[in-house]
Amino acid sequence: MSRPYVLLSAAVSIDGYLDTRPGEERLILSNAEDFDRVDSVRASVDAILVGAGTLRADNPRLLVNSEQRRAGRIADGLPEYPLKVTITGTGDLSPDWKFWHHGGEKLVLAVGNEASEKARANLGDLATIQGIPTDATWQTALDVLGQVYGIGRLMVEGGGTIHTQLLELALADELQLVIAPLLVGQSDAVRMFGPANYLGGPSARLQLLETRQIGDVVLLRYAPKDISTENR
Ligand SMILES: NC(=O)c1ccc[n+]([C@@H]2O[C@H](COP(=O)([O-])OP(=O)(O)OC[C@H]3O[C@@H](n4cnc5c(N)ncnc54)[C@H](OP(=O)(O)O)[C@@H]3O)[C@@H](O)[C@H]2O)c1
Question: What is the CA(157)–ligand 1 centre distance, in A?
Answer without folding.
Answer: 9
